[in-house]
Write a structure and sequence with these properties.
single chain, alpha/beta, Rossmann fold, pyruvate-formate lyase- activating enzyme, 2 domains, 7-stranded mixed beta sheet, 16% strand, globular
């Protein structure tokens, strides 16, 4: 018997429709694996079932749990980015129900950004016995140790009558290295993970091996659409020790053959004293990596672009969001369109590719402002672009605004997936949700079928990648509300 089994949920077919079969990335659950490593360092026995990577049905997941014979079970609804926690909740609930039907007496625990944002509702609409609010590691350790429920910060639970009880939040970890040690990669099916398609445009047929890690937690900003800080309770950012990160990268490269790496941090390109030590360490250790990471348009130091490239940072994702100053929600993202053009070109001149991230349907958006954003995307002609509809993710300020104003929200949690059939973005002051979603889907087709874009892709990556992009854009994404 082992002390605890962790389950990583996920249903790529529901979340991505036809795009989930071969196009979408399959990401390792870093936070779950780090939590498992933390508990293992405390001498508890741990196992992980990655139902998402294995493509397990709830019944297959239960069979694997029975084989492992744990004392308790934790389903961690984290996902590949903060918003993915919400869209995974239907699968989380299905797995929980299947487990309870077969193993009714084993304590069943849920954690992750969505449960932290809506703890009471999560327990009300599920069969979980316990919920971890916040980061979870300290709370879970105290729970496993046998500490009485009422003494454990961050714990929510149901009493014998079904009443929901809870304690105050657990304090955030002051030493991030303690709760984010080198993850328990040995407990994961490493051969199952694959990078995003665009991440591997230089070698599209080799998207594995693949890994994704955090080097920091949180974000100091408070953008209206973002739910990144739901587990932390406030805007903030904390860092792992760069030496611990480098130790982890060496393990991934030398033991697991990882080349493709995602740095999950909401803002990796932010504090130079942190990320420069990691980049310099990668260079010194001759780690051959193909890295992508997030940056803001106002956090990039042009003098360091050559160092980024030398360390293997081949892709930077920029939150451009909107071309309209009135619509733009980022508090300090005040660069003009001409400045964004200049920045993108300087990044590309260093051999680093750019993913432009755009949002349609922010509160002030109308057809004219969304068209301006699409035209900006086409002018920038980044090597890849993500077009999002504004969603009121639980834990974001948009969710609070939607609740206060009575705006229609998705009927099911899968409706928070950008690519699902049930996807339902927010309406704007001028447009319905269906009109926003229809424009987003049109913009996707317009961008990826544009001859200027395809010509650039052919020149940089060759005919195979052009064919791949055409195949992606040919896949139909069906919509209920369009």
């Amino acid at each position: 018997m082992i002390d605890i089994v962790f389950i990583n949920p996920g249903n790529r077919k529901k979340i991505f429709q036809s795009l989930g079969i071969e196009v979408s990335a399959v990401e390792p659950p870093f936070c779950l694996a780090a939590m498992a490593s933390y508990l293992r360092n405390k001498k508890y026995s741990v196992a992980i079932i990655d139902s998402n990577a294995e493509n397990f049905s709830p019944e297959q997941t239960v069979s694997r749990v029975i084989e492992l014979n744990p004392k308790m079970i934790a389903v961690i609804a984290h996902g590949s980015q903060p918003s993915a926690s919400t869209q995974n909740m239907p699968d989380v609930y299905e797995i929980a129900s299947a487990i309870k039907n077969s193993l009714p007496n084993i304590p069943l625990i849920v954690g992750g950004p969505h449960p932290s944002a809506l703890p009471e509702r999560t327990l009300q609409e599920s069969c979980f016995d316990y919920l971890l609010e916040g980061e979870g590691s300290y709370t879970l350790e105290q729970f496993i140790s046998g500490l009485p429920e009422h003494e454990i910060k961050g714990l929510w639970w149901k009493d014998s009558s079904g009443k929901i009880l809870h304690n105050e939040r657990m304090d955030l970890a002051k030493n991030l290295n303690e709760i984010l040690p080198v993850a328990a990669w040995d407990l994961l099916p490493m051969e199952k993970y694959r990078a995003h398609n665009w991440h591997c445009f230089d070698d599209i047929e080799h998207r594995s091996p693949y890994a994704a890690i955090y080097t920091s937690f949180g974000c100091p900003y408070n953008c209206v659409f973002c739910c990144i800080n739901a587990p932390f309770g406030k805007p903030s950012i904390r860092y792992r020790n760069p030496e611990v990160v480098l130790e982890e990268l060496e393990l991934l490269v030398h033991r697991y053959g990882v080349k493709n790496l995602k740095i999950i941090d909401e803002l990796f390109i932010f504090q130079e004293s942190h990320y420069l030590k990691i980049l310099e360490g990668i260079i010194e250790r001759n780690l051959d990596l193909n890295i992508w990471a997030y940056a803001r348009v106002d956090t990039i130091n042009e003098s360091l672009l050559s160092t980024l490239k030398k360390a293997g940072v081949n892709w930077l994702a920029l939150g451009i969001e909107s071309a309209d100053a009135k619509v733009k929600s980022g508090n300090k993202k005040k660069l003009l369109a001409c400045d964004v053009h200049d920045l993108v070109r300087k990044i590309q001149e260093h051999g680093i590719r750019v993913i432009g991230n755009y949002i349609f349907g922010l509160p002030e958006d109308n057809y004219d402002s969304m068209e301006k954003t699409l035209q900006l995307a086409k002018e920038l002609n980044c090597e890849f672009a993500n077009f999002y509809s504004a969603m009121a993710y639980p834990g974001s300020r948009l969710y609070k605004m939607a609740d206060e104003n009575g705006w229609q929200l998705p009927e099911t949690w899968i409706g928070y997936s950008q690519h699902s059939f049930e996807a339902l973005p927010l309406p704007t002051k001028h447009l319905s949700a269906g009109e926003v979603l229809k424009f987003r889907d049109m913009a996707f087709q317009n961008y990826f079928n544009d001859e200027t874009y395809l010509s650039m892709i052919h020149q940089k990556f060759g005919a195979l990648v052009v064919d791949h992009i055409k195949e992606i854009s040919s896949k139909e994404v069906k919509r209920k509300f369009v």
